[in-house]
Design goal:
Helix content: 10-25%
Number of helices: 1
Strand order of the largest sheet: 1-2-3-4-5-6-7-8-9-10
Radius of gyration: 22 Å
CATH topology: Lipocalin
CATH superfamily: Calycin beta-barrel core domain
Number of strands: 10
Order of helices and strands: HEEEEEEEEEE
CATH architecture: Beta Barrel
Strand content: over 45%
Largest sheet: 10 strands, antiparallel, barrel
CATH class: Mainly Beta
Number of domains: 1
């Protein structure tokens, strides 16, 4: 009986050790160049319009062992607040954003980091008089600010309307 008990304890601790070793080998599953492409947006920001007027604040933090960037927006012009979750999807090689605000508006965006810019776009929305997609572009500037431009674009990528232009400055 003691031999069986000792064997059980040995097997149990061997399995636990193997699990711990496996977990330690995968401590940073979301590390590397692809996962760091949007890190320039992380921080506590005051957001200004083109005229230099404060339009809101945004806190962007990394969560889930650096696998997710969470955005926390608060407008200074209205009671609008919103949250987005941004992540790199290794299955299809895209960056994704899921947004929801306190009005119930939601948006799903997908795209890539190219030429120093993160460009995410929604699927085409079929509306009258014309179909459009939402497209948001973020760019880190030389002075460590970030410019965010939200536009609507047609099916060919031509800009139809600028919805938001924000300049992010670290608090």
């Amino acid at each position: 009986m003691n031999l069986a008990k000792n064997q059980f304890i040995y097997i149990f601790f061997t399995l636990i050790s193997a699990v711990i070793v496996a977990q330690n080998q995968n401590e940073a599953p979301c590390s590397g160049e692809k996962y760091e492409q949007f890190d320039f947006w992380e921080g506590n920001w005051k957001v200004y319009d083109k005229e230099g007027d404060l339009v809101g604040t945004n806190k962007v933090v990394k969560l889930q062992d650096d696998c997710v960037l969470q955005e926390n927006w608060a407008s200074k012009l209205s009671s609008n607040t919103g949250t987005s979750y941004n992540f790199y999807n290794t299955a299809n090689g895209t960056w994704n954003q899921i947004w929801i605000d306190n009005s119930g508006f939601t948006m799903n965006l997908k795209g890539h980091f190219r030429d120093g810019k993160m460009v995410l776009k929604s699927e085409l929305i079929h509306a009258k008089p014309r179909s459009f997609a939402n497209q948001i572009t973020w760019k880190k500037n030389k002075d460590n600010t970030v410019t965010q431009i939200w536009t609507t674009v047609d099916e060919n990528g031509k800009i139809l309307y600028e919805i938001f232009y924000g300049i992010y400055k670290k608090q």
